[in-house]
Amino acid sequence: MNKLKKNIIKSFLNRYRFWILGVFLIGVFSNLLTILIPISIGKYYDLLFGYSSKRAVILDFLPNRWTDTLPHFLVFFIFLVLLRIIMSFFQRYYTSIIGEKFTKNLRELLFSHQIDIKQSVYDEYGIGKYLLRYSGDLNSIKSFITVGVIRFCIDVFLLFLTFFIMLWISPLISFVLLIGAICTLAIVYFLNGYLYKYSLKLRNRKSGLLSYVNKNLLGILTIKAFNRYTISKKRFNSRSKKVYELSKKYQLINNLLLVLIPGFLYITLSIVLFAIYVLKENGSLHSLKENQLLAFILLFVTVLPVVRRTFRVSSKWKTGGLSFDKLITVLELPIEKGLEKDKLISYKKGILEFNSVCIKNENNDLLLDKISFVLQPNKIYLLSLDFIKNERKSLLIRLFLGIEVSYHGEIMFDGQDIQEVNIKDYRRYIAVVSPILPIYGRNVSEAVLYSRNNRRLQRADALLNLLQEGVEIHERIDLNTKLIENALNLSESQRWLIFFIRAFTTNKKIIIIDGMQHLKAYSFYCNLKKSLVDLKEKGRTIVVIDLPFKENIIDETIKL
Q1: φ/ψ of residue 118, rounded to 5
Q2: What is the tens place of the pLDDT at every residue in 6-25?
């Protein structure tokens, strides 16, 4: 077993050991009641016909008045059935709660790790393929724990107890049942091998299909604008057909198992009944009385669903184990460099330096060549690029944020290499205004603020009002304006307004601004410049990238 998987399971079992022990004990008590019900029916048979058998001795631990007459027995039997219902409910309910606790822990662990995963992983593989981990895979893992571990242990206890009671009643018939069960188990094991193979392929196909849907919905405007409906639907239908073909094969094996397991068990029962008939004809059945035979058959019928469930548990192990392995694969993806470091930034003045920073792509082409500059507080800088390419601007912003780490040279903050400190702590000092950082949140307030702190809310509201002075009322947005994915329901200028408010309300020391030219037509442009000057006077460092027209607020221009 994978070490990480083992540690996750071990940690959970240790944390909730009393819960699990309690559920197991409830399950054991419920199983005892399950066995007592068919045995008590045998007692009823004794009372009805005046027999006395060794099987009835099992109930001798009860007060005699509970089962001495038929009316007393019927009251006792109804009580037994009701108690069985109650205990069965508690067993199922608390087992389910343990499963929910386990998936909750996994879900939170998975999301926490995914937030920390290196950006290059998402750049290469996208995000759609990871979404299945939160739905189908977590459900399979929950079944793995609840059905494959907890209920399986309880069921095995019941089956062993039942078998020993059957062995006590009739050793010969019990061994016939045991041989039939072993044969059935061998067939189930063989078919489960095929079920696992198709389950693996089906999950991969479904994951790929989900990723395809995610990409298309994110690019829905492009699909509409370029009339790519037909090709998108055709490709989806092709993928959907492959999922359907695999699903047919999976369902064939799965339903064959569902039918064969009870089928072979009933065939085993038929063999037992035939063996009893043969023994009776040969006069060898004198040791097995009618009431004992009745109890034997009732016990078998009672535990038959448990036997079926136990035989099918291997599919839960395999599919749950497969889902667990896929989730572990995500948890083992590399996190951002620097997150594991405990060393925090020692803030002094907030001076940021790039020393001979260069980046090459996979083809060894130079994207950024020996960039060197120093950014001081209380200044507004213009980074003038000789190349106006989104790819290189994006790289520059990723360098500022410490997201891009495949570079040569040094990036220093107050004399500290940002790769040698905790990168999250470094980002406490950097804010970016750029469309490469998507907008997310249910409304503008969630998109621009970390918290619902009243002071921050008031500041954000004041900034919104300031930067929208002169804007028509129907074109304004406020903190309660609803947002759809990436604020696509807003205009470009409104989205840029959110980019600015989001950065300005953070109180971070360095603000990187990409593309102020997008605001030329906006009437709040002058107020924005005033806000930048105010920020500079408060000790902030403002860096504007790619500004194609002259502005008198610029203190220094750096040509790259």
Answers
A1: -55, 140
A2: 888 889 889 888 988 999 89
